[in-house]
Amino acid sequence: MDGAGGDGAAAPLAKWRNDFSREFQKFLDRSTPHMVERWLGTSVAALIYMLRVYYVQGFYIVTYGLGIYILNLLIGFLSPKVDPELEVLDGASLPTKGSDEFKPFIRRLPEFKFWYAITKAFCVAFVMTFFSVFDVPVFWPILLCYWLVLFVLTMKRQIMHMMKYKYVPFSIGKQRYTGKKTGASSSSSMRD
């Protein structure tokens, strides 16, 4: 009989969790096209986290871990879904010459998932600042220098990879068709 009573109490909790999950997914789906607003919200969360760390004067290990995680996400965001170094063996690689077939850049980590992971990371790190067990005393300038060296070396390797395989992970705006160029200048030069 105790087992039946326990299941009755768990059912409303499961229903609430299911309803919350559904509403949260609906919120995420509605926020997908609003990229600027999403990133502004994440910037606010990052600012609140930085202010919390500044006023508490601690949790540098949490911040360092957050920085490493964000660096890892950034590498995934800047990398192609299919690594050209591995695909050279199969023959299906990114175009390296002008005569090669155009293949669009597809990220390993899409922008929405990148945003969602960073936002979750800032929220989790913020919650961690309320538990003193995560406030390990360290000399933070050493962590900052180590993270900066790690960032520079990682970005250098990523940029060299981008240059070697000639891909750019960013596209600014939508490409527009301007039509065929008129042959007026070429036909006038032929008349002369």
What tags apply to this protein structure?
single chain, 192 residues, mainly alpha, 7 helices, membrane, transmembrane, Rer1, Protein RER1, transmembrane helix
Lay out the secondary structure:
Blueprint lengths: L1 H30 L3 H22 L3 H19 L5 H4 L23 H18 L11 H26 L18 H8 L1
Keywords: Membrane, Transmembrane, Transmembrane helix
Family: Belongs to the RER1 family.
Pfam families: Rer1 (PF03248)
Structure write-up:
Belongs to the RER1 family. Keywords: Membrane, Transmembrane, Transmembrane helix. The chain crosses the membrane at residues 61-79, 114-132, 138-155. Pfam families: Rer1. The chain has 192 residues and is mostly helical. It has a domain at 60-169. The protein is 66% helix and 0% strand. It contains seven helices and no strands. It has helices at residues 2-31, 35-56, 60-78, 84-87, 111-128, 140-165, 184-191. The longest helix is centred in the N-terminal third of the chain and has 30 residues, at 2-31. The radius of gyration is 25 Å and the shape is globular. The model is unreliable at 186-192 (pLDDT under 50).
Number of strands: 0
Largest sheet: none
Straight-line N-to-C gap: 103 Å
What are the secondary-structure elements, in order, as H or E?
HHHHHHH
Low confidence ranges:
186-192
Mean pLDDT: 83
Q: How large is the share of residues in beta strands?
A: under 5%
Protein structure class:
mainly alpha
**Rg, Å, rounded:** 25 Å
Spatial shape: globular
**Total of DSSP H or I helical runs spanning 4+ residues:** 7
The proportion of residues forming helix, as a percent range, comes to 55-70%
Function: Involved in the retrieval of endoplasmic reticulum membrane proteins from the early Golgi compartment.
Keywords: Membrane, Transmembrane, Transmembrane helix
Subcellular location: Membrane
GO cellular component, one term: cytoplasm
